[in-house]
Specification:
- The complex is a heterodimer of chains A (219) and B (232).
- In chain A, 30% of the residues lie in helices and 16% in strands.
- Chain A has 219 residues and is α+β, with helices and mostly antiparallel strands.
- Chain A folds into two domains: 91 residues, Nitrile hydratase, beta subunit (Cyclin A, domain 1, Orthogonal Bundle); 82 residues, SH3 type barrels (Roll).
- Chain A has a five-stranded antiparallel sheet.
- Chain A is globular.
- The two termini of chain A are 24 Å apart.
- By secondary structure, chain B is mostly helical.
- Helix content of chain B is 49%, strand content 9%.
- Chain B has 13 helices and four strands.
- The longest helix of chain B is centred in the N-terminal third of the chain and has 15 residues.
- Chain B is globular.
- Classes of the chains: A alpha+beta (219), B mainly alpha (232).
- At the A-B interface, helix 1, helix 2, helix 3, helix 4 and helix 6 of A face helix 1, helix 2, helix 3, helix 4 and helix 9 of B.
Chain lengths: 219, 232
């Protein structure tokens, strides 16, 4: 979707402000939100792609007003309700509905080290042939889907070169909408900065974007 | 709250979308004394107790995850990788061609670093990592991302004006240096292998690792030679 989350190339956002000796979390609740989000994700009711898209659906003014971990909180609550794990009434009261059965969490404390060490790989061993080869000139498709896509606006319609084939991965554009993993090749595509931004860019500079087969067409 | 932090908060509240937050505003309104818990803190507390009571979440698992990213996993991991690459050219080659396997040799990998790519800076090439669409960042080697990395200014500007961003952050690159910006749009996570500073021939691997900063592995900083450190 052409949302405000797709920020590459926008103007007017001000200087980059770095904080010295920044803590990992600024408030205790930020850590709780971070970890709760990971823990409820272990139910497998939604993918990381769906979770990213949920945050993209936050209305633009709100997206800018609230902090990073507030977006996490808003997105997590929507996913919990949409997946049926909790109801809005339960969120409002903070109490389980009367008569609801107590479940067993999939992510118990003993499984945390394994989750951290192994992660949740998005690569797939599905034998899918690549549609493009390293060195090939390609054009990022000019698409404007209303749903989730990992093809940023600034690259759409632009010419680039396939620099590396990373193998087969889940396709977020369908997976975010529970429409299947649709595994396909992911590439590093090199776009000359001048192709993206015109003469203001450095003549030898480039932006590398990871794109999937379905984002590209032969140039 | 010290002055530096207060200044940062103020700046964060004025910069569009940087880290502006009703929560921080509420905390500030609490003044010098004991701040009342913010609405968000209360909402999170209520949500957590609901999730625990329903058996959806193990509270000890939540504690363990926080402890992991507050205390165990952070940029010192990446610094060890960089130092090893500086002293061992065969390791460096493995790191640049198959980062996952090379990182696993040192025990690093996993969540939000399942598929890693390491890119090398040189006198003629400078790499910079960003995630314009969200906040993708290589957790196993750098920990969780700082607020500025996730902020609108960094996400919007680093692809269209990387040299301007770098200049503001103290890295002034000559025109002849090629700048490569890596936008983390897939489940591939990028780490920059910074240039080894001059006058470090006598340092051992551990001393070298101590020189490596988080920002140098994102590409927003260079590493100063030891003699120059503290003067800049």
């Amino acid at each position: 979707m052409n949302g405000v989350h797709d920020m590459g190339g926008m103007h007017g956002m001000g200087p980059v402000q770095q904080e010295r000796n920044e803590p990992v979390f600024h408030e205790r609740w930020e850590g709780r939100v971070f970890a709760l989000n990971r823990a409820v994700g272990s139910w497998g009711k939604w993918s990381i792609d769906a979770s990213r898209h949920q945050k993209e659906l936050i209305p633009p003014a709100e997206y800018f007003r609230i902090s990073y971990y507030e977006k996490f909180l808003v997105g997590m609550i929507e996913l919990l309700v949409n997946s049926g794990l909790v109801t809005r009434a339960e969120i409002a009261s903070g109490k389980p509905a009367r008569g609801s059965k107590k479940l067993s969490p999939p992510l118990t404390v003993d499984k945390v080290p394994l989750l951290v060490a192994n992660g949740v790989p998005a690569s797939r061993s599905t034998p899918v042939a690549p549609k493009f080869r390293v060195g090939q000139r390609v054009r990022a498709r000019n698409i404007n889907p209303t749903g989730h896509t990992r093809l940023p606006r600034y690259a759409r319609g632009k010419l680039g070169t396939v620099e590396r084939d990373h193998g087969v991965f889940v396709f977020p554009d369908t997976n975010a909408h529970f429409l299947g993993e649709n595994p396909q090749h992911v590439y590093s595509v090199r776009f000359a900065s001048r192709e993206l931004w015109g003469a203001q860019a450095g003549p030898q500079d480039a932006v590398y974007v990871n794109l999937w087969d379905d984002h590209l067409e032969p140039a | 709250m010290d002055n530096a932090r207060r200044g940062f908060m103020k700046a964060a509240l004025t910069a569009a979308g940087a880290a502006s937050s009703s929560v921080y505003a509420a905390a500030q309104a609490g003044g010098q004394g004991q701040a009342l818990p913010s609405d968000t803190a209360l909402r999170v507390k209520s949500l957590e107790s609901l999730l625990v009571e329903k058996g959806l979440v193990d509270r000890k698992a939540v504690d363990a995850l926080i402890d992991t990213y507050e205390h165990k996993i952070g940029p010192r991991n990446g610094a060890r990788v960089v130092a090893r690459a500086w002293v061992d050219s065969a390791y460096k080659q493995r790191l640049l061609t198959n980062a996952d396997a090379a990182l696993a040799e040192l025990g690093f990998g996993g969540l939000q670093g399942e598929h890693m790519v390491v890119v090398e800076n040189s006198p003629s090439l400078h790499n910079l990592v960003v995630c314009t669409l969200c906040s993708c960042y290589p957790w196993p080697v750098l920990g969780l991302p700082p607020v500025w990395y996730k902020s609108a200014p960094y996400r919007s500007r680093s692809v269209i004006d990387p040299r301007g961003v770098l200049r503001e952050l103290g890295v002034d690159l000559p025109a002849e240096v090629e700048v490569r910006v890596w936008d983390s749009t897939a489940e591939l996570r990028y780490m920059v292998l910074p240039e080894r500073p001059a006058a470090t021939e006598t340092l051992d691997e551990e001393q070298l690792a101590a020189l490596v900063t988080r920002d140098s592995m994102i590409g927003t900083a260079k590493i100063a030679a030891p003699a120059a450190r503290g003067r800049s």
